[in-house]
């Protein structure tokens, strides 16, 4: 039985961040009262909802320390601790708590909880580059969801397995210099598996009438077909994704769709069409006030103008890209801008300017190469795979960071309805 603060003691005012943690600590110590596991967990839930995962995790940790005999509540707390650390990019801790959640769900015979914990484990293992183990966990999520007749869980599991194969395919292709469509057979086979799972996910979310999930599936199918060199198919999928993004007023997804449509048309030699899509990408990136995406759009537009032999316009876009890269401290982007500017100036016959930017590119390349070598030496003991451009649903979670602990049945956890997305 939990001790309730409500109606008995005045709670401290709601705050976020470390200030909230300190205030609650003082409240608990100097108020001469003991907070229950549930009360601490609810505060952790509130902070995570507000986006303060660090403070939220601190309260969840405190809730675990206080303890509870309600194992379903404890399972929910473990799950949300795993999610909080996932969003904080502390993946080893996320893995630990999702394993605790899985063990506890099995102990109490909670099959749905076991399925969700397996899905979260799979997503975390994917980020850590442990793709085969991730597939095993996501497959278990799929199997249990089907066993329980959980269509929503089944759709999420299919989607997440597709994401694992997509990430694995991208990882395998890192050491290859081929353009989309010209990939080693192992990479093609892996990406084809991703496409098959996305197709199955799309079919199921259509059955469920989940338009938002359909949009994500179309986007990922487009990205996968693009990598496989099936550019016409990619365009068809991205047009569907674009339509749904507009339907929801999702400007970020709309921007990604325009960018992906531009990319696909480039490989079909339709440079003028690509330029129009990239211009829409640039316009939306400015509306969204996303400088990194604006820089990417300028880079794409500059290269497309070069292909169209409009070198003066190309230089304008590449100079804008260079300025933004410098503002963001993006040395890799700065180097790319210098390389592209050098090429454009050569085409205009401005050899002095071309030489200036070629030297800048060489200087930056040497600096970046040294930094990469140092990072590889420092991190040689582990494989941490960064997020991949081109996947709708960046490290998609099975759960939102919400405990839903109020009232009876406080261990229930609701599934996540949206996914963070990566551009491309």
UniProtKB/TrEMBL annotation:
GO terms for molecular function: G-protein alpha-subunit binding; GDP-dissociation inhibitor activity. TPR repeats lie at residues 255-288. PROSITE patterns: TPR. This is G-protein-signaling modulator 1. Keywords: Cell membrane, Cytoplasm, Membrane, Phosphoprotein, Repeat, TPR repeat. It comes from the Eukaryota. GO terms for biological process: establishment of mitotic spindle orientation. It comes from Malurus cyaneus samueli. Its main location: membrane. It is found in: Cell membrane; Cytoplasm. It holds the Pfam family TPR_10. GO terms for cellular component: cell cortex; plasma membrane. Belongs to the GPSM family.
């Amino acid at each position: 039985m939990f001790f309730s603060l409500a109606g008995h003691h005045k709670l401290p005012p709601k705050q976020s961040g470390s200030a909230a943690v300190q205030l609650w600590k003082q409240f608990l110590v100097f108020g001469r009262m003991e907070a229950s596991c549930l009360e601490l967990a609810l505060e952790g839930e509130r902070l995570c909802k507000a986006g303060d995962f660090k403070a939220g995790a601190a309260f969840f940790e405190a809730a675990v320390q206080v303890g509870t005999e309600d194992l379903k509540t404890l399972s929910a707390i473990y799950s949300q601790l795993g999610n909080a650390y996932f969003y904080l990019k502390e993946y080893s801790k996320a893995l630990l708590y999702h394993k605790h959640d899985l063990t506890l769900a099995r102990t109490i015979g909670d099959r749905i909880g076991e399925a969700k914990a397996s899905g979260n484990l799979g997503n975390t293992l994917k980020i850590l580059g442990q793709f085969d183990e991730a597939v095993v966990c996501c497959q278990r999520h799929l199997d249990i969801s089907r066993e329980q007749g959980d269509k929503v869980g089944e759709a999420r599991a299919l989607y997440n397995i597709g994401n694992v194969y997509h990430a694995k395919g991208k990882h395998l292709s890192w050491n290859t210099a081929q353009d989309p469509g010209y990939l080693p057979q192992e990479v093609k086979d892996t990406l084809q598996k991703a496409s098959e799972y996305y197709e199955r996910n799309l079919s199921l979310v259509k059955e469920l009438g989940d338009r938002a999930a359909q949009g994500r599936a179309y986007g990922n199918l487009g990205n996968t077909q693009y990598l496989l060199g099936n550019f016409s198919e990619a365009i068809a999928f991205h047009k569907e994704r674009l339509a749904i993004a507009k339907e929801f007023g999702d400007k970020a997804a709309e921007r990604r769709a325009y960018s992906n449509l531009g990319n696909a048309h480039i490989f079909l030699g339709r440079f003028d069409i690509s330029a129009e899509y990239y211009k829409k990408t640039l316009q939306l990136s400015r509306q969204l006030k996303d400088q990194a995406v604006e820089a990417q759009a300028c880079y794409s537009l500059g290269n497309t103008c070069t292909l169209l032999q409009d070198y003066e316009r190309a230089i304008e876009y590449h100079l804008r890209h260079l300025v933004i890269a410098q503002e963001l401290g993006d040395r890799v982007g700065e180097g790319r801008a210098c390389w592209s500017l050098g090429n454009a100036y050569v085409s205009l016959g401005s050899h002095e300017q071309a030489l200036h930017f070629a030297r800048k590119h060489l200087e930056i390349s040497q600096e970046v190469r040294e930094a990469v070598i140092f990072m590889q030496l420092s991190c040689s003991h582990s494989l941490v795979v960064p997020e991949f451009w081109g996947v709708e649903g960046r490290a998609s979670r099975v759960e939102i960071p919400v405990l839903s602990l109020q009232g009876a049945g406080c261990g229930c956890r609701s599934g996540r309805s949206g996914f963070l997305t990566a551009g491309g």
